[in-house]
C-alpha cells in the first residue's frame, strides 16, 4: 500500500497540478487495451484522494515489452522529467515503466529535477527517504516473478512434450492435423504427398541441389505448408524441409533458446547448446533413421563452405542481426522491378544485385560494387555540404524563425492535426448513421478499420508534437555546423561498416539502380538515382518549414569506373582540333593510352554527334539482344514481375 506522506502535492505553476500518468501493456493476445484505461483511471483516482485542487492530466500510453530499453516512450519520459513542467508522475506499478533496475534510475532523473513519482501498487513515493531501496526491491521482485514464471512455463511445456508429444497445431507439408489435436499422436501422414516427398528425396540425394527439388515441387503443384511465408517453393525451403527430423519420426523441441541482450533489454533466439529434445512418433516417419541421417550429412558436407567464416574460432558477425546489413543492402531498389538489392551479387562478396533477379522475376542481373558506390556517395555529399554555404543567410533565417518561440513547423502540424481530428469525428458520425441504417456490411467493416488506423496515426502524431513542444529542437544552426557534424560522422565510420549503412539510409531515403550503356556499345553499367536529404539524421528537421526542401536534391551516382575512351574523350577531341595526329595525342595524354584507344575515343565522339546527344551513356530499358551475358530472362522459369504497387520514378 502507498504510504501517505506528510509532503502534500503542490503545483509548480501555482494554478493547477500537472500530472503525467504512464500506462503500458505488453501487447500480447491476452492483454486488452481496456487495461490502459484502467491504469489511467487508477492514477486519476489517487490524485483525487491526495489533492483537492484543479489538475491537468497527460497520459503516456504504450504497448511494448517491459524489458525493452529501446522503447521511444522511455526517452519521452526522461525528457518530460528534465523539462520540469510536471508536478508528479503516476505509475500503476514500477514494472509499467521498465522491468529491471533501469526503472530506479529513471525515477532518480525525476528526483534530480524535482518531479515526484508515485508507484501505486509497489508503495513507492520518491518524497520518502527510502524510495531508492523500495524501487530496487520492487525491480528485483518483478524480475524474479517473471523469471520464475518463464522457467515454470518452459518446464511444463517441455515435460508434456517428452511424455505425450504435446505440440501446437502448426503442420508442415505432408501431414494432416485433425481439429483439436494436442499431441503428435493425433497427427497423421498425408498419403497423397508420400510419393512426391520420396521422389524429392531421390532428386536431392542425386543432385544435392535444393533448387532442383523446388522445380519438381512447383511442376507437380505441391503446396507449401499452411504457415509458410513464401508461397512458392525455393531451394532454401526445400533444404529446411528435408532437414526436419519429423520426417524420420522424431519431432523435436528446444533446438533454439532465447538469450537476453542487457544493453537493449531485447531477447534473441540462439542455437541451444544443450541441443533439442526428441519425441518418438514412428507413425509420422516418411524415411527410416539411417536414410534420413545420411542425406542430412551429405547436404551438410555439400554446403559447409556457404556458412559464415569463423575468425580465431568465433563467428565474426556474432550478435549482428541477419537483417542488419551494410550500406545499400536491402535499401537500394531496382528501377525495373522495384525489389531491393542484396549483397553477394553473382557470387562476389562486395557486389550487390537485384533480389528479383535471384528469384527469376527480373532480368537485371548486373551487380554493382558497394564500396565504390559508397566512396562516390561520400564525395558527392561532401561537395554538396560546401555548396550550401551559398544559402547561409536563408538557412540561418529558417532556423531562427523555428527556434525563436514561434515554431511555425509545429504550429502548422498542430493545425493539420486538429483539422484531421475534426474530419475524423465527422467520418465516424457518418459511419455510425450508416451502421444504424443498413447494419453490418463488408464496406462498413472496411470503413471502421480505416477509422481505427487513422485514430492510431493521429494519436502518434499528437504524442510526437507534445514531446517536441517540451524540448529544444535538435537541428544544426548553420551550414557550417551541419558540415562539421556530417564530416565527423564520415571520418569515424568505415564505408563498409554497419553504422555507415544506417547513416546512408538516413541521408539517402530513396535510391534506384538502373543500367546505362555507351552509345557505341560495350558492357551494361549500373547507375543510381538518389534522393539526398542532408537533414536525414536530424528528425527535428521536419519542424523547420522549408529547411528540408532547401537541403534536399536529386543526385546521380555512377557505380562504375568510366571506360578509358570516355575518360580521355574531351582531351582527345581538343587535341585533334589543334591538328595533332592520333599517335601524338597518345603521347601527350597523362594516361598514356594506345593509339587504338585514341581512335576509339574519336569514334565515340562521332557517334555522339550523329545521335545529337550530349552524354555518351544511353538508358537501357530492356535486355539488349546483342549482350550475351544477360541470359536470365531466357530461363524457362523466368517471369518478369514488378513488385506490387511499385511505380518507377522518372530519371
TrEMBL record:
Molecular-function annotations in GO: DNA binding; DNA strand exchange activity
Xref: Gene3D superfamilies: Putative Large Serine Recombinase, Chain B, Domain 2, Resolvase, N-terminal catalytic domain
Classification via InterPro entries: DNA_bind_recomb_sf, Resolv_N, Resolvase-like_N_sf, SSR_resolvase
Bias kind Basic residues: ranges: 258-273
Renumbered residue ranges of the record's region Disordered: 254-275
Coiled coil regions in record: none
Domain spans labelled Resolvase/invertase-type recombinase catalytic: 19-162
Xref: Pfam families: Resolvase (PF00239)
Family in the record: Belongs to the site-specific recombinase resolvase family.
Protein name, as recorded: Resolvase/invertase-type recombinase catalytic domain-containing protein
Amino acid at each position: 500500500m502507498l504510504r501517505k506522506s506528510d509532503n502534500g502535492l503542490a503545483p509548480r505553476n501555482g494554478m493547477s497540478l500537472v500530472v503525467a500518468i504512464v500506462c503500458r501493456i505488453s501487447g500480447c493476445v491476452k492483454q486488452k487495451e481496456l487495461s490502459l484505461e484502467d491504469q489511467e483511471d487508477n492514477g486519476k483516482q489517487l490524485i483525487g484522494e491526495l489533492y483537492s485542487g484543479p489538475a491537468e492530466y497527460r497520459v503516456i500510453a504504450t504497448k511494448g515489452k517491459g524489458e525493452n530499453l529501446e522503447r521511444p516512450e522511455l526517452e519521452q519520459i526522461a525528457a518530460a522529467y528534465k523539462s520540469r513542467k510536471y508536478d508528479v508522475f503516476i505509475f500503476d506499478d514500477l514494472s509499467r515503466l521498465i522491468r529491471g533496475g533501469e526503472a530506479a534510475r529513471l525515477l532518480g532523473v525525476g528526483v534530480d529535477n524535482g518531479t515526484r513519482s508515485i508507484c501505486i501498487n509497489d508503495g513507492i513515493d520518491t518524497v520518502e527517504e527510502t524510495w531508492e531501496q523500495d524501487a530496487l526491491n520492487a525491480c528485483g521482485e518483478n524480475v524474479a516473478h517473471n523469471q520464475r514464471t518463464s522457467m515454470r512455463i518452459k518446464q511444463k511445456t517441455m515435460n508434456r512434450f517428452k511424455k505425450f508429444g504435446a505440440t501446437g497445431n502448426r503442420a508442415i507439408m505432408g501431414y494432416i492435423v485433425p481439429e483439436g489435436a494436442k499431441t503428435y499422436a493425433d497427427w497423421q501422414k498425408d498419403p497423397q504427398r508420400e510419393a512426391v516427398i520420396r521422389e524429392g528425396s531421390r532428386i536431392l540425394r542425386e543432385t544435392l541441389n535444393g533448387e532442383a527439388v523446388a522445380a519438381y515441387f512447383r511442376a507437380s503443384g505441391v503446396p507449401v505448408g499452411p504457415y509458410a511465408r513464401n508461397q512458392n517453393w525455393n531451394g532454401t525451403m526445400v533444404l529446411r524441409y528435408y532437414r526436419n527430423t519429423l520426417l524420420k519420426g522424431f519431432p523435436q523441441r528446444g533446438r533454439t533458446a532465447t538469450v537476453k541482450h542487457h544493453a537493449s533489454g531485447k531477447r534473441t533466439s540462439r542455437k541451444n547448446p544443450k541441443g533439442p529434445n526428441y519425441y518418438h512418433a514412428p507413425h509420422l516417419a516418411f524415411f527410416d533413421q539411417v536414410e534420413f541421417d545420411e542425406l542430412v550429412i551429405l547436404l551438410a558436407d555439400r554446403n559447409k563452405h556457404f556458412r559464415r567464416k569463423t575468425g580465431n574460432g568465433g563467428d565474426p558477425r556474432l550478435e549482428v542481426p541477419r537483417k542488419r546489413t551494410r550500406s545499400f543492402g536491402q535499401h537500394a531498389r531496382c528501377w525495373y522491378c522495384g525489389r531491393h538489392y542484396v549483397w553477394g551479387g553473382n557470387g562476389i562478396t562486395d557486389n550487390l544485385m537485384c533480389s528479383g533477379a535471384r528469384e527469376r522475376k527480373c532480368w537485371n542481373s548486373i551487380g554493382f560494387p558497394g564500396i565504390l558506390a559508397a566512396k562516390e556517395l561520400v564525395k558527392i555529399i561532401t561537395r554538396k555540404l560546401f555548396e550550401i554555404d551559398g544559402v547561409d543567410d536563408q538557412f540561418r533565417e529558417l532556423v531562427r524563425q523555428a527556434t525563436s518561440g514561434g515554431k511555425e513547423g509545429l504550429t502548422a502540424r498542430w493545425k493539420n492535426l486538429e483539422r484531421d481530428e475534426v474530419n475524423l469525428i465527422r467520418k465516424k458520425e457518418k459511419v455510425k448513421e450508416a451502421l444504424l441504417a443498413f447494419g453490418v456490411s463488408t464496406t462498413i467493416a472496411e470503413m471502421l478499420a480505416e477509422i481505427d488506423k487513422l485514430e492510431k496515426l493521429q494519436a502518434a502524431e499528437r504524442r510526437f508534437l507534445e514531446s517536441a513542444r517540451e524540448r529544444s529542437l535538435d537541428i544544426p544552426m548553420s551550414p557550417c555546423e551541419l558540415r562539421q557534424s556530417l564530416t565527423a560522422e564520415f571520418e569515424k565510420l568505415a564505408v563498409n561498416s554497419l553504422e555507415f549503412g544506417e547513416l546512408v539510409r538516413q541521408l539517402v531515403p530513396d535510391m534506384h539502380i538502373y543500367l546505362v550503356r555507351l552509345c557505341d556499345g560495350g558492357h551494361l553499367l549500373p547507375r543510381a538515382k538518389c534522393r539526398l536529404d542532408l537533414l536525414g539524421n536530424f528528425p527535428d528537421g521536419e519542424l523547420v518549414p522549408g529547411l528540408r526542401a532547401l537541403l534536399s536534391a536529386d543526385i546521380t551516382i555512377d557505380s562504375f569506373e568510366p571506360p578509358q575512351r570516355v575518360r580521355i574523350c574531351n582531351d582527345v577531341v581538343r587535341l585533334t582540333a589543334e591538328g595533332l595526329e592520333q599517335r601524338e595525342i597518345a603521347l601527350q595524354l597523362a594516361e598514356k593510352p594506345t593509339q587504338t584507344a585514341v581512335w576509339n575515343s574519336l569514334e565515340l565522339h562521332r557517334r555522339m554527334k550523329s545521335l545529337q546527344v550530349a552524354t555518351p551513356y544511353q538508358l537501357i530499358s530492356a535486355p539488349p539482344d546483342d549482350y550475351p551475358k544477360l541470359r536470365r530472362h531466357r530461363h524457362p522459369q523466368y517471369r518478369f514481375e514488378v513488385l506490387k504497387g511499385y511505380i518507377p520514378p522518372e530519371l
